[in-house]
Amino acid sequence: MKQRQMSSWTRTRPYSPFNMSSQNPQVTRFCWQCLQLDAAPEYPDGEVLCLDAVQEEIYKKLFGHDIAFPLPPRYGLKVLKELTSRIERSIVDWEEHGISDNLMTTMSELLSVPLPSEVVAAQQKCHVAYHLSLLQEPSDAAVVLLESRSIISGSGTTGLRTWEAALHMGQYLCANPTLVKGKRLLELGTGTGYVAILCAKYLGAEHVIASDGSEDVVNNLPDNLFINGLQGTDRVSVSELRWGHALLGTEEEEWNGGREVDVVLGADITYDASVIPALVATLQNLVAISPGVVILIAATERNRATFESFLEVCQKRGFHVHYELFPVLPRPEQRGPFYNDATPIHICQLTVA
């Protein structure tokens, strides 16, 4: 197997992993999927991969030494093994094409260091970049989060990773930015803060309260605000809010200083039937404080009975549930973020009946 030396290249400033301009959409898609740590990224076709310029581009975007958020070693090695194998299979004329020295050297370096087991790696926090493909500007916009890829963290919370409903809610808001622009928002069950950060950083929200009932989740949110340049700003605040409990002020006499909110958002907060009554009770309290509030819930329908339980409680508590027409795009049509297209995700607007 012949390796081929790539031409040298220089940088005038630190390289950004979000400089995704490319003449080949397959390469752009693949790189965004890898930056999202997609379990099954879609590799470019063989006739594309064998090109020297493409290999160099992939190396710079995913494995360059000065990118801001390197891939986790175990994931990076997995991608490199499959990538180099596909390149090798694609090459017909080894005099004309070869495998990048940069890619091969990086793979050798990763093979030479001890890597964590899959179980340990899943619990470790790593940077995940979610491309916001529905935003017109900037074209390389992304929300970057430090999160755990395990379903449930060691502390027992599900809020240290970003779930599909949050990604779908984000796409819906990107497609309908007037719902957020200039508005005061409250997000319930914010988890990693994906939706709150998206609204504050890219969609022009006046202020976002990122709330969660888990102390561990709330304590982790400042890291993600910092990564996305929102630390020390007045656009986002973090709050511990337990559903079903009275909305009380902490430093201020009234909750949120007596200020109303315009929009309440919640993504994947209806998965547990046992907490739905408390959730809806909190929504009732919020309507009492902010009578004109718009309530939007992104609900993943993993279990029909649980989803119907949510609808039933809403009806009993005086809410009408309206479905927004915004289906999940088929996976081949997604350009980022990338998420499962097999399970329905409903965007629901709740109004007082």
From TrEMBL:
> Which species expresses this protein natively?
Podospora anserina (strain S / ATCC MYA-4624 / DSM 980 / FGSC 10383)
Read off the CDD domains from this record. Answer: AdoMet_MTases
| Pfam name, any one | Methyltransf_16
Q: Name one GO cellular component term.
A: cytoplasm
This protein is called Podospora anserina S mat+ genomic DNA chromosome 2, supercontig 3
* UniProt cross-references to SUPFAM superfamilies, sorted A to Z: S-adenosyl-L-methionine-dependent methyltransferases
What PANTHER family does its record include?
A: HEPATOCELLULAR CARCINOMA-ASSOCIATED ANTIGEN, PROTEIN-LYSINE N-METHYLTRANSFERASE EEF2KMT
Under Gene3D superfamilies, the record lists: Vaccinia Virus protein VP39
What GO molecular functions are on record for this protein? S-adenosylmethionine-dependent methyltransferase activity
